[in-house]
Amino acid sequence: MFRPATLRDFPAIDHLILKKAKEFQVAGKSQWVKYLEPSRSDYVRHDLTKGSVFVYERDAQVVGSVSLIPPTDWDHNLWEKPDDAVYLHRLVTDSRLKGERIGEKLMEYALSHSPSTIRLDCVADNTFLNGYYPQFGFRYIGERNGFSLFEKRA
What we know:
By secondary structure, the protein is α+β, with helices and mostly antiparallel strands. Helix content is about 35%, strand content about 30%. The chain has a seven-stranded mixed sheet, sandwiched between helices. Helix 1 (about 10-25) crosses helix 2.
């Protein structure tokens, strides 16, 4: 079941992000290293209080989440006119459900619940993600500071 997240979902979302960050580390990937730190919880708390977070729940357990938030310092450093959009961050699913397309469904759900232009970024050398986002109508804008920038207009 897809639904908007609440503060009660904080522990589950925080755990999913930490688990995924550890999986990336084991796989030798450099993305999400900052989420290995306890400060990761600050990002989750920020998303839940300042933006829109959506979760996918199965058997009363949160197994995926995605955040649509106002621009942060990170976004201000990457984008021109950062206040012209909301930003998609922290799309995460439980790896045990790989292959069930939960990430795709979460993305579609979030996109259908945003009246604003949505932007996102990913590591420029991540071939998978650079091919993944255009499937949802995101247009490649360019590269900045080693990150690919994508935008989907409302």
